Structures are given as C-alpha cells and as structure tokens.
Amino acid sequence: MNNIFVTGGSGFLGGHLVKKLKSNKMNFVIAPNSGDCNLVVTNSLNRFEKKFDYIYHLAAWTQAGDFCLHFPGDQWIINQQINTNVLQWWKKYQPTAKLIFMGTSCSYSNNYPLIENNYLKGEPIDSLYTYAMTKRMLLIGAESLRKQFNMKYLCVVPSTLYGPCYHDDGRQMHFIFDLVRKIYNASNGGEAPKLWGDGYQSIEIIHVDDFICALLDVTDKLSNEIINIGAGEAYTIRNFADMIATICSYNKAKIIYDTHKYVGAKNKCLNIDKLRSMHTEFKIKNLKEGLKEIIEWYASTTSYKNQ
User: Fold this and answer.
1) Residue 221 is part of a domain; what is its CATH number?
2) Domain assignment of residue 14, yes or no
3) Burial class of residue 218 (count of CB atoms within 10 Å of its CB; 0-12, 13-18, 19+)
C-alpha cells in the first residue's frame, strides 16, 4: 500500500487529485486542510509521523486575476514560509518520500521557449514576478536537498487547469470559469459579459482529469527533473468566449472586451515534447466537450448565479 500526503488537498486540483488517489484501494491518503494544518506555522507538519511514500505539495498562497499585482510582498513571505516548512518536514521526517510539487508556467520568461531547460532562465513577467520566483525557489530548495541528502523530487509545471467543481469561496476565478459565469448569466437575462483585455491574449488549458492522469503516470517515471504537463495547444480568449457563447446560445457580438483591464501573460503555451516522448498514457479531452461539461456543472449550481 502507498502512503500519500497531499498539501492543498481542499483546492481545485487537490480535490480532484485526492478523489482520484482514494479511488485506488491500494492508497492511504492524508490531505489536511488549512484549518487542520496551517502550513505557514513552523513545525505544523511535525505531528504527521507516519512514513509516506509520496508527498504531493500543491499548496500555495495565490489567486487568479490581478491578485499578484496587489500582494507581492505578502506572496513572497507566505509562500516562502509554506515551502520552507514543507521542505523542512520532508528533509527531517520524510527523507525516503518522493516529493512531487507544482511549478508554474509563469516562472518561464517570455524571452525563451517554454521548455523545461528554460525554467530558471531569464526574468518572469513583472506582474507575476513574486509568485513565479517563489516557485523557482521551491525548485532550488528541492534540488539543494537532493544534492546534500540524496532525496527524490519531481517538479511538475501545469498549464491552466479547468474542469467541474471549481471553488466558490469568493476568490477571483481563473479566466475560463469567469468566462463561463459571465456568458452563461448573460444568456439567462444577465448583463452583457465584460471580459478583461482585447481578447487576443493566447492561453493553453488542460482538463484537470487529463492533467492528473499524466501526473500519476510520470510520478514514478521521472526523478529530480522538471516536466511540463499541458495540452500543447493554445487558443485566444475570443476563441474560448465564442465557443462558450455558442454552447449557451448567446450572441457573441454582445460580448464586451475591456482593454483597460489587466491581462497577465499575453501568450502562454507549454512545450510538452518531453511528456510526449515518454509514451505516457496521455489523452486530451475534446475542448468543446470540456467546456460543455463546465457549463452544465455551473448551471446545476446556485452559488455563482447572478454574481
């Protein structure tokens, strides 16, 4: 039996991952939420004395939208505290466990192709700089522990994830959920959707189920490396909005694009040649089917409506 520990298990990715891990009866999974274990607090993990085979570190203090613009100092301190406490616990109490942690595509510089060897090269974009650098520091910390103590890790860099059961805790939503919310509400008598930017920024998304299947497949195949996991293809915000509008039977000509709003990275698509070269059991959900799934999930909830 595999003993598995997950940080950030109550988040969007964490919730899906924990469910998938628990579906395998050969896994014993512990995934405390922030109320049970505050990762900012030193030694908060020490009470988990069971020896784990895998530690999936998903926890991070961030949000979508322009959050990173407003809290760069807090992001540096809080995420450094979280990551240092996890690394300390890993080194002191879980040295035989393999640490699998999330990087971020915003760590890549716009001046280099988004391929694994370039993860630490150049400068991330200014608006996401602090968050990106805390993720780079997490990789450097894991690699430093590997060098001194011969520990094993895997850094996984995901493209933007989408799928059902997104959080509704009042935080800003990633763009794809925001598009669904605004366009679906407009199609049901709400105000015309106002989207951030001119709509020509290009973004890659991958269904959370596809990401998790690839993640679990590479967990044992790679050690002490970085790997990108994405769909390998990007679309513009207008492409996404048009597809969602069609599914919702909404006139896309009514969509408003606000060029004064923050847009973040304008072109982001991971190179996934490394993933493809591994002959992994990797599949990509049809985008229109995936968007329809989110819209149907959203329509079945009440928490987002009329927001």
Assistant:
1) 3.40.50.720
2) yes
3) buried
